Amino acid sequence: MSDITRLLDVIRGRNAKSVGLQFPVGLRTKAVELAQDLEREAGVMCLVSADPSFGACDVADMPVDLTVHLGHAPMPHLRYDRVFFFDLGSPALEDYRFLDAALPLLPRRVGLLTTYQFREWLPVVIAYLEKHGHEVHVGPPDKRVAYAGQLLGCDYHTATVIQADVDGYLYIGTGDFHPLGVAILFPDKPIIIADPERGEARDLKEVRDRIVRQRHAAIARAHDAQTFGIIVSKKIGQDRMGLADKQPMLTPQEFEIVLGERRWEDYVFDEIRAY
């Protein structure tokens, strides 16, 4: 486990007697070790949330004095109560095979995107790409995004703010979830995933096209529906009751297609941004 001195200082400073730990699925293997360390060093009782965490909008409601959330950065526009985000830092960048694999797939002007886990790699990746002749752009943070270049599954600000300056994007990370929205939002720009765990790179085009077809099929099925149910989350960063009361869960553009007011050819992926 990484250095927990800062975390111990926070626990003692807040006079916490019970601490809740919340991990994303990929970090759960560290749960027992961290809980044992905190109980031994701080004399607290630790509870570990069994629910998976999908982001800083998804903080567990636990019966403890302090909830420690790991693996995500706090969303600047939210106000958390008795929650501390413990920064695990980025792993060391030692193997460049995933970047080597991405080079032949990239346009000259490229936007750089990543997740919280790999954010500390960006200066090194920028230097690497520029050394190989690329013009690199990184979007700044905003109200929902804590770091430059950081991509959330629900927020593409760092991609949209630089879209006029780039011909494609390089995403440093694993899986399709985070960059998929960018691929749908900008279908004419290649989205290349450089996966440091697998040491490989790939274009997201096939995945994007499959998801768009599935979305079109869902819109077509909705055409004959008379009653729509709306599901609303009550989690701190996901509560959109006001938004749900105003519009259906199809995006406005998709609802126009259902009503016959927009053609399929004019389908546009819509990013819902609510503060």
Q: What keyword list fits this structure?
A:
single chain, 275 residues, alpha/beta, Rossmann fold, five-stranded mixed beta sheet, four-stranded parallel beta sheet, 29% helix, 15% strand, globular
Would you give an account of this structure?
It is a single chain. With 275 residues, the protein is an alpha/beta fold. The protein has three domains: 5-86, Diphthamide synthesis DPH1/DPH2 domain 1 (Rossmann fold), CATH 3.40.50; 97-205, Rossmann fold (3-Layer(aba) Sandwich), CATH 3.40.50.11850; 209-266, no CATH class. It is 29% helix and 15% strand. The chain contains nine helices and nine strands. The protein has helices spanning 5-13, 31-42, 97-102, 122-131, 157-160, 177-185, 205-222, 241-244, 252-258, and strands at 18-22, 45-48, 66-70, 83-86, 109-114, 135-137, 168-172, 191-195, 200-203. The strands form two sheets. The chain has a five-stranded mixed sheet with strand order 6-5-7-8-9, sandwiched between helices. A hairpin with a 4-residue loop joins strand 8 and strand 9 (200-203). Helix 6 (177-185) crosses helix 7. The protein is globular, with a radius of gyration of 21 Å. The mean pLDDT is 86.
Topology record:
Layout: H1 5-13, E1 18-22, H2 31-42, E2 45-48, E3 66-70, E4 83-86, H3 97-102, E5 109-114, H4 122-131, E6 135-137, H5 157-160, E7 168-172, H6 177-185, E8 191-195, E9 200-203, H7 205-222, H8 241-244, H9 252-258
Parallel strand pairs: 1-2, 1-3, 3-4, 5-6, 5-7, 7-8
Antiparallel strand pairs: 8-9
Helix pairs in contact: 6-7
